Amino acid sequence: MEEVSFGDPTRLSKYLNSYRCDIIFTMKVALVYDRVTKWGGAERVLLALHELYPDAPLYTAVYDRKNAPWAAVFDVRPSFLNKIPFASSLHELLPALTPLAFESFSFDEFDLVISVTSAEAKNIITKPHTYHLCYCLTPTRFLWSGYDQYLKTPGLGILSSIAGRMLEKLAPMLKRWDRIGASRPDAYIAISKRVKDRIQTYYNRSVKKVIYPPVDTTLFIRAQPSSKISNAGYFLTVSRLVSYKKVALLIRACNELKVLLVIVGSGREERALRNIAGDTITFVTNHLTDKELVSYYDNCRAFLYAADEDFGIAAVEAQARGKPVIAYKQSGVSESVIDGRTGILFDSQSVESIKKAIDVFEHSAIKPDDCKNQAAFFSKERFLQEVKNVVQELVGEGRKNL
């Protein structure tokens, strides 16, 4: 180690900062995620973290190679649940086993574990020399913020009634387990202020920092669309078709207004949503490349969101293409939208509220450049730097022997 003159405070500060950076990139790091079975916003977070920690293995409850090709860059280490044939697609039927699956992992060889979770991944057990940093997407949704919705519509087809009754009976026990799991991380990072409030409300845990998820704004600002969509002038939503996303509200509002709505996404609610969709509603359920998605953004009038979303990466992508966002005010989406300038925020999750917001939008003069400038704040580079800064701070605090 080089000799440093401590008589020069500036030099000493630079040296210590450099030394902490060296520690960060020589630590043994592991990543943990609830289940590797699909593609979405959380998966983009994991790929960004992979850029910071390319050698970090990825631990998960179940791994579906076919439906999660993005994970091929990782050394994926699934739990014993992966041996159960239906576990990756019907994990809701295993609520008591999934926390145990994460408890079965050993992280003794690692200095830092980052769990990315909206469910059970925070249940991992680490020893004092291993720091557990939780990047919380939201407290376990089916037990807390989405509990009532899941009871009514579990979204499991013919198994829904069984799943609903099972959840109702097991909920008190599962909530106790979830709070125990929530006590295990050494520190929390939340993906939005909305999620920060939920963590404090449901888990009684403080949040180290809010770090918004990464959006590849460079791609969405500069990308050329793969093709032109002939039927332009529609409203657009990009979403998994599950009950809490409230896509049914968007369909009913657009049915009544007789305006075009394109829905990009797939999920268990697709059949039910198609049943209520009128002639002006179009579903695009095949997987799209980013360039194909750009084409849909470019030709829409505005992006619609009705969910109480944790953050809403698609809303930032739309703004990166200069498109305004119409969204529910009590949602993480509202943290990326400037009401009246880059979009319109409505007060309640109702058909009437959505219709009024669309009417306000029709008489607004939102500028594409304002939307693009707002989206630039949520870049992947910003995310990576903020994660590095937090890890640096934890190293500097010396809470663990990292």
Notes on the protein architecture:
- This protein has two domains: 9-214 and 380-397, Rossmann fold; 217-377, Rossmann fold, CATH 3.40.50.2000.
- The radius of gyration is 22 Å and the shape is globular.
- It has 402 residues and is of the alpha/beta class.
- It contains 14 helices and 13 strands.
- 39% of the residues lie in helices and 14% in strands.
- The chain has a seven-stranded parallel β-sheet. Strands 10-9-8-11-12-13 form a six-stranded parallel β-sheet, sandwiched between helices.
CATH topology value of the largest domain? Rossmann fold
- Low-pLDDT parts are 1-16, 398-402
Task: Assign the CATH architecture of the largest domain.
Answer: 3-Layer(aba) Sandwich
* Number of strand elements: 13
Proportion of residues in helical segments: 25-40%
CATH class of the largest domain: Alpha Beta
Could you describe the largest sheet, including whether it forms a barrel? 7 strands, parallel
Characterize the quaternary organization of these chains.
Answer: single chain
Order of helices and strands: HEHEEHEEHHEHEHEHEHEHEHEEHHH
List keywords for this structure.
single chain; 402 residues; alpha/beta; Rossmann fold; 2 domains; seven-stranded parallel β-sheet; six-stranded parallel β-sheet; 14 helices; 39% helix; 14% strand; disordered N terminus; disordered C terminus
